[in-house]
Write a structure and sequence with these properties.
386 residues; alpha/beta; Rossmann fold; 2 domains; two-stranded antiparallel ribbon; 12 strands
């Protein structure tokens, strides 16, 4: 059992197949993570509730495009180092290390939606094997892992953390198109509920992480570090958007001004635009939710979200103004959007600029068409119906 052996032995026993790793959630980060552990000679079971994706992965086919992932998946499936399942309750008792990479989003009221993660915690609590190590990697608000996940697992398992199982947190730090590289080369933030959990989590992660570990003194601090990274990005994009708006009204060229300003080493003005994806537009709401529970108002974070969420409407307004200058109207006009994803050279449809623009344009009566070379016509019709 992982928590009963020293960290060096943990690595040896994982490589020998005596200790097994379970990766829960085979999405954009989970599947590459599972493949990297399998590449490092670990015996890995990947679990996902999506039956279609489980079938594809079992056949050595990736459900999404990611640089370098397809050949790696084929190899680890062929060697048998990676196996996949849709039955979490069945696989948890067979596993010694459980790594959780379930998506966390927001609901219609822009509150954190941890429902999938909560289900996973309950299943783990009902089937957890004594002396196992659980490593959470999903992005959550500061305090979630200890306030909900840990309490749920302890209550349902009857075990006590630190005595009967270990718990650690190490947030995701990777971007689409470079996930395999980022997972191995970025410094890795990690925190444990106690020293034993921390040391064993670092030992496990050292199988794939080639850079240093940044150890924080609490799981809550590690959760906050990840949230702060994304909030920093969101706030700085909002700054770029308001400065670009000023330049537009003042007859200035924001791009050239930003390039000049950025020659100062401490200035990092970003490109303005719509913020999309599963991280930057979502994570600030995790922080705002926790701040509200503390009776705090984070005005800068709130304002940044409002600024960035208003960009799509402003773009449509500019299109409408340009049409009017030529005596045209948006209603019944045909608009062609090039690029369906939220990031160049990758696939990903959650909160994309394309969707944001499409919804507003359609409400104004425009006929909208979408094209992206990374998608088939059938996929585009499914995601962006006319």
């Amino acid at each position: 059992m992982v928590m009963k052996i020293n960290p060096k032995e943990v690595v040896r026993k994982i490589k020998s197949g005596e200790q097994k790793i379970c990766v829960v959630g085979l999405g954009r980060i989970g599947l590459p993570t599972a493949c990297l552990f399998a590449k490092a000679k670990a015996s890995v079971i990947g679990v996902d509730k999506n039956l279609k994706n489980v079938k594809l992965i079992s056949e050595g086919k990736t459900p999404f495009q990611e640089k370098g992932l397809q050949p790696l998946l084929e190899k680890v499936i062929k060697t048998g180092k990676l196996q996949v399942s849709s039955n979490l309750k069945e696989e948890i008792p067979k596993s010694n290390v459980i790594i959780i990479l379930v998506s966390t989003l927001i609901d219609n009221q822009k509150n954190p939606d941890y429902s999938e993660l909560e289900k996973v915690c309950k299943d783990i609590g009902l089937t957890l094997k004594k002396d196992s190590l659980i490593i959470f990697e999903s992005t959550v608000g500061p305090g979630f892992t200890e306030n909900f996940a840990l309490k749920t697992i302890e209550h349902l398992s009857g075990f006590k953390v630190g005595k009967d199982f270990g718990l650690a947190y190490s947030p995701i730090r990777a971007s689409p198109g470079r996930i395999l590289r980022d997972l191995t080369s970025y410094p890795r933030i990690v925190a444990g509920i106690d020293k034993a959990s921390l040391n064993r989590a670092c030992a496990v992660l050292s199988l794939i992480v080639k850079n240093r570990f940044i150890v924080l003194d609490s799981i809550k601090a590690a959760e906050a570090a990840k949230v702060f990274e994304n909030v920093y990005r969101d706030v700085n994009i909002a700054l770029a958007n308001v400065l670009a708006r000023f330049c537009e009204e003042a007859g200035l060229n924001y791009k050239k001004i930003a390039e000049a300003a950025n020659t100062q080493p401490y200035c990092h003005l970003l490109r303005p635009g719509i913020v999309g994806g599963t991280c930057i537009p979502v994570t600030p709401y995790f922080l705002l939710f926790e701040a509200k529970n503390l009776g705090l108002s984070l005005e800068v974070v709130e304002t940044a979200r409002k600024v960035n969420e208003a960009v799509a409407k402003r773009i449509v307004d500019k299109i409408s103004e340009a049409f009017k200058e030529d005596g045209l109207k948006l209603r019944r006009s045909k608009i062609f959007i090039l690029g369906a994803s939220y990031k160049a050279d990758s696939r990903g449809e959650y909160l994309t600029p394309c969707k944001a623009l499409m919804e507003i344009l359609k409400r104004k009566g425009a006929e909208v068409f979408v094209w992206d070379p990374l998608y088939t016509i059938g996929e585009l019709r499914l995601v962006y119906p006319l």
